[in-house]
Amino acid sequence: MTTLFGFPTQALFGQLLLGLINGSFYALLSLGLAIIFGLLNIINFAHGALYMAGAFVAWILLNHLGLGYWWSLLLAPVAVALFGVLIERTLLSRLYKLDHLYGLLLTFGLALIIQGMFRLQFGVSGLPYAVPAELAGGTRLPFMYLPTYRGWVVVASLAVCLTTWLLIEKTKLGAYLRAATENPALVQTFGVNVPLLLTVTYAFGVGLAALAGVLAAPIYTVSPMMGADIIIVVFAVVVIGGMGSIMGSIVTGFGLGLVEGLTKVFYPQGSTTVIFVIMAIVLLTKPAGLFGRSS
Length: 295
What we know:
single chain; 295 residues; mainly alpha; two-stranded antiparallel ribbon; 11 helices; 4 strands; globular
């Protein structure tokens, strides 16, 4: 049996793949959080619940409307984004000039309400969601077996993250978004509808969370608590990358997923805490985060 650093090669690369898959979800979710915080100054604690909602919308579309995975990739983020519009217009828009704590408390309460509604309707046991037939099976590589669907998740997540970064950092729309957070009155004088821009931003951020939920549905059990299980780690990722940093969320999400995977190989007991240890070290040495800018 081939070994590397004293460990079986197949087991080592298998854990790296699992870490990369987890990192894909960390990156997508932290990207949505970074967009919402960076452009709206709202700490969106409901993000995990909306990620869960995306997975459940995909399950409902499949089991009640007969619409499969590919339709869910399109429709579930749109449905959750529209729900996000309702949240932003009726609730969050009233908090933009207040302290961050108000937005945190409101979105935390929303998360509990959303999770409670899904638990009441679907119970606490998970629901299965089958891998689409086109992405079933896998490929035998010299050093490991690569399931096709998991490879697709990594590629799709990376593509969405990089496209989002290009949209925000390299386009006129992204420039308007960034400017609207710094000086909304000035942007409005150029004929830009700033309230609409902020609504679209929040909808886009929660749409990314729902997209991550659809991608996760065939891998993890679709459960009302799936968002609560991941959101704390995702917040740690955002803090390490730098609050509001788009590229920081992407790089840190994938990177910490790999670190977590390697930790499971070399020191399994520390795999559940390694990200929080890294967060503590980063906050002590660089409080603004790895990619954040000091105020």
